[in-house]
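Hello Y.,

Per our agreement to keep a running log of every chain we model this quarter, I'm adding this entry. I've kept the format consistent with earlier entries: sequence first, then predicted structure.
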Amino acid sequence: MAFRGQKVWLWRWRRNPLKRRADTLEAWVLLGAWAITLLVGVFTGWASAGAVEHELARERATWRPLQGLLTEQAPGKASAQPGAAGDRVWAKVRWTAPDGSSHTGQVRVDPGSPAYSTVTLWTDPRGHLVTEPADPDQARVRAALVGVLAGCACAAVPFVGGRLLRGRLERRRVDQWDADWARFDPLWGRRQPG
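Predicted structure for the entry above:
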């Protein structure tokens, strides 16, 4: 392993008689790739989180709870602790929408719930069944997670592009080095073995 000495900040932009144009170009490509990666990641994450939080707020404002009746007994045996989310089963329910139309569908209820018992269900403005909307705290957490994931995914594109471009510049520089070495090696009088 070669000794590299102390790390020098901003060494890519310092004056150096051995620095070539390819080195300067690589420095600017690296700076541009990092800047674009940061901007794309932050902007996309912020925009995605805002859109998700706005949509979840719209759902809270427009989705309404209704009372429905089970049309048959729910499958399973009644548990000792009703209402546990992990113990719920699907059952057929009937309800009347605010416009007076009758609907049927399936919702999750406690196991063994008797037929014709009332259950709370949620509908959208068209009267279709939906899940219970997220409360504001849940909405903030979901929006933050989606924002982080979207930001990271979109930031990966310029990051990978910059890495590929840098690798190509590196290969070009090594090829130039090999060509220069092949040209000057005979002038130094060294002979290649074999």
